[in-house]
């Protein structure tokens, strides 16, 4: 099966600045992947390059097995982009805006009412765009991205400004679309979006991809157990020695405690291993990493731009 997207060493420079720096990743039909990163990380630039709007400085993009060239209309027809800021005609209704878009892109207008229904805009479709709330604008923009039933969806902050009901609706719709085989790349700084619906996340920071994997695996890899024992010195030697159990990753000493890279489920085995050497835990705290702390760890920031804890 061809990847919906395959990028190699994808780079965009603005002057001396690398907005995206040698990015490599692939995305397959049916995958719903979160592109996560702090402000200015390079998310919008990445989506812009994948949708043919921004010319890469170097590197390659293949969509559905074909190299993306800027004016390849047939290939770009398979891509639906929901930009960060939607631009519509202010005096036209939501429905009429979609009609104009459908006519511009040669898409069958009969699908418009179905799309309006899917995104939950039926009651407001007749109102002029300029009267729309931020959330309604987002929903219209999503409907617009879905025009023509594209196989690849590039969504820049799709649930920004939506109330919880709207968010849930969009989440359900995206899950349904992925189940129908669409490849979806969704940029967000809302960890909750990504945690709830994406199995895989790509984390980008200062233009570089710093993590890419199944969310479960990334979280498991960064899970830790904090430990104090009846003999920390000997425990440290044992747990970092050649005969230590294979499920223990790195070990460090932080704030007077041993910190082991290990899954929380291993806590029982850890005490049994230590007990076999006459060492007993006096404090043993498994810590399952949240996406929030993983994000802070790999980017050095929290998602609201404050320095990470
Ligand atoms: N046209 C441009 N000219 C110069 N610099 C740019 C341009 N577009 C983006 N940049 C810079 O490239 C970097 C990446 O920007 P980008 O918009 O891709 O980030 P982002 O992750 O989408 O951020 P946000 O979450 O704030 O939307 C930023 O430092 C930005 O200032």
Q: Which cofactor or ligand species appear?
A: adenosine-5'-triphosphate
Q: Class by helix and strand content?
A: alpha/beta
Largest sheet: 6 strands, mixed
CATH topology of the largest domain: Rossmann fold
The overall number of domains is: 2
> What is the number of strand segments?
14
CATH class value of the largest domain: Alpha Beta
Helical content band: 25-40%
Shape annotation:
elongated
- Hey, roughly how much beta strand do the residues contain? 25-35%
Order of helices and strands: EEEHEEHEHHHEHEHEEHEHEEHEH
Distance between the termini: 42 Å
What radius of gyration results from the CA coordinates? 24 Å
Low-confidence stretches: 303-309
CATH architecture of the largest domain: 3-Layer(aba) Sandwich
Oligomeric assembly: single chain
What value does the average pLDDT take? 89
Instruction: Please state how the strands of the largest beta sheet are arranged side by side.
Output: 6-7-8-3-9-10
Q: How many alpha or pi helices? A: 11
Q: For this structure, what is the CATH homologous superfamily of the largest domain?
A: P-loop containing nucleotide triphosphate hydrolases
